[in-house]
Write a structure and sequence with these properties.
Helix content is 36%, strand content 28%. The chain is an alpha/beta fold and 213 residues long. A 5-stranded parallel β-sheet has the order 4-3-7-8-9, with helices on both faces. The protein is globular, with a radius of gyration of 19 Å.
């Protein structure tokens, strides 16, 4: 690869270290993905309902309500995400308001881990850290308790859906701002055509159970 500048002798070790870190992260992600997919059993698409023109005309909404209603389907979701936890070994699960609370609390309970909510502004009492992020039209804000990340815990962020990645990316930044060590993000459904995965940190593992193009 051609670089339009050269590195001095004192910079080369730093460059090599960064390259080694990147290669190591990719290798770990590959191993986790292999183990993760070996544990997959049910076709979870059977538990997702397509709702046309919701919440706006022209949008096809992927509804996981049938999955939540079915104990077999939901147990499979928890087992797959549980396998991811076994590999990443987070100290806490962070769930994004609102359906991320459902996913996150279920997973935290199964793996006997603590749970931390990330909420819309004004919903959490006491001192909070907040972060503003851009929407298609305007901005929004997320908040987390200021003491939720004490002792720099390893964090797995979960939500039901990865679409454009704005909310997930903001949550990743918020976790780091609060002092957490982000080790991964996990979703039930990913809309791959929207490119949300590309907005997430490239040094963490990102896993989705179902992909729609």
């Amino acid at each position: 690869m051609f670089l339009p500048y050269s590195f001095g002798a004192d910079q080369q070790p730093k460059l090599l270290k960064a390259q080694e870190k990147s290669s190591s992260s990719m290798a770990i992600s590959a191993m986790i993905a292999c183990k993760f997919h070996q544990n997959a059993s049910l076709d979870l698409r059977h538990y997702v309902q397509d709702i046309p023109d919701f919440p706006k005309p022209g949008i096809l909404f992927r509804d996981i309500s049938p999955m939540l209603r079915d104990p077999v389907g939901w147990a499979d979701v928890m087992n797959r995400l549980g396998s991811l936890c076994d590999s990443l070994k987070p100290d806490l699960i962070v769930g994004i308001e609102a359906r991320g609370f459902i996913v996150g609390m279920g997973l935290a309970t199964q793996k006997k881990l603590g749970f931390v909510p990330v909420r819309k502004p004004g919903k959490l009492p006491g001192k909070v850290y907040g972060i503003d992020y851009a929407l298609e039209y305007g901005t929004d804000r997320l908040e987390i308790h200021a003491d939720a990340m004490r002792d720099q815990p390893k964090i797995l962020v979960v939500d039901d859906l990865l679409a454009t990645g704005g909310t997930a990316s903001a949550t990743a930044d918020l976790v780091k701002k609060a002092g957490g060590q982000l080790v991964g993000c996990a979703f039930i459904v990913e809309l791959t055509a929207l490119g949300g995965r590309e907005r997430l940190p490239d040094d963490i593992h990102v896993e989705s159970l179902i992909h729609y193009s």
